[in-house]
Structures are given as structure tokens and as C-alpha cells.
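Incident review: delayed structure delivery

Summary: a single-chain prediction request sat in the queue longer than the usual turnaround. Root cause was a stuck worker, restarted by the on-call engineer. No data loss occurred. The affected request and its eventual output are reproduced below so the record is complete for anyone auditing the incident later.

Affected input:
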Amino acid sequence: MCDVFLSYDHRDKGFVMLLEDVLRHSGVNIWTSHSSIDPGCAFHEEIGKAITNSDIMIVVVTSHSRKSNWVKREVRMFLSSGVNRRIIPLLLERDNLNDLKDIALELMSLQSVNFSTSYSTGFDTLLGVFGGSFFYKEKRSPRSRGGYDRRDPAAIPRRLRHGFRKEYFGETGDDKFRGLPLLPRNREKVLSLLKPEIVKYRISGVGNLSLQPEVVLREAVDYVWNDLKKNERNGELNPAVNVIETVADYITSQYSAASIDRRSRPN
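Output delivered after worker restart:
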């Protein structure tokens, strides 16, 4: 039996793959149409069996999924196939409560998990359902500095911006002021190119709780991308350097970042 069935629109696959990684890392047994159907198996039949055998359905609610007949059909099948089973809607966009109603009226009465303001908080709330937590505290000896460079915290925002620029433009060779079309493939490219830099930092949230840098990066890129798209004028592209530096500024304004000191230390 699979514990969780993920229902989503294929246009939200980027988030779904991140969600899948976080859940699997936390020991949750999940089923998705893009990774759980063996070659040669009947698509409709496998989805039907997975829905029947699942204890929980997670529905990724977006402006895409509200229009998806597949998502509506999956939710309806889950609702009609058994009692005492839970549906957890994930809200990825602000003010999309009406999207719940468009998928299934029953979703309006269910407690949702809000991802629209913070992926980190959303993941922590979701993992709490399974007895886990997205946040974790690192174990350190009382005398240890934790292996992190704290000599100049005020320089971190400037250092992160510089590192992001170096990674992105060093790989692409693009002119810094060239317009960057806000397309899905470019968003994934930005995520891929900035990842080697963000993992050089320890990212902390409220209470100095450590967060996964890659997830914080995706949250930042998604937020900046959506915000810039809303304010994008017709035919006017944002300079690539503006996009990259805004991602760095979002991270350092929302979270505490410290460079990891990779030098070996004597015992």
C-alpha cells in the first residue's frame, strides 16, 4: 500500500519533484504518475489502483490544476472510494482559495497547507502530518564553532550576490544586462546554476533552525520569478543580473546565512 498519492498538473512538475524529494527523504511512501508507473502498464488502471490503495491524497492547488480534468477526476475518485481518508490541499499561489472550489467543492472545508509565502514553513507544516519536521538542529560540541565562518556577517549579502553572479555568468557567458525571459526553462537553469553557490552556506530560519539550502533557493527563485512576472511590462525583459541579485537579496533578507568554513580544523 502506498501512503500518499500526489495529484497535480504536469505544468507544476518542478514543485512536485521538489515535494517528492522532501517527502521521500522524510520516509514517506508516495505515488506519482511520472515516477511510479512501470513501462507497458495501463495508465488509467495504475492510477485507479494507486488511488484505491492510498491513505492520503496531497493535491497541489494552482491556477493550472484548477483547470485540469485529470486532477478533478483523481480527487473525485479518492473522495468516492473510501471513508476515513485524508486529503491535504497545498496552496502554491496567493488568493487561490477559489481554485479549491473549482477542483472539488469538498476541498473548501479542508484545512490547507500554505506554500504561497514560504516553502520552508509549508514543508514543515506538511511533514508534521507524518510526525516529521522540515527544520532540524545540528549537533555540535560545546567548544565547536560549528565549522562556519562568522567573522564578517555583514559581508554575507554582498558575498552571496557575487557568488551567484560568478556561477551564473561564468557558466552562461551572457552579458549581465541582457534581458532574461521569465520562462520555465530559464527558471530551472537559474536554479541549477546557483545551486553550487548556495550549498556553501548554512541557512537558518526562526530560532536559528537550520534549513536545506537547495529548498530555500527554490523558494527564493520561485518568489522572485512570480513577483517579476506580475510587474513585467509588455516586451520589457528584466536584466539577468537584476534577477540573480534579487534572488540573493531575498535569501539574505528572509533568512540568516553564514559561509561554511571548509578548512580542516585540528582536534
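Verification: The CA atoms of residues 122 and 133 lie 11 Å apart.
Action items: add queue-age alerting; document worker restart procedure.
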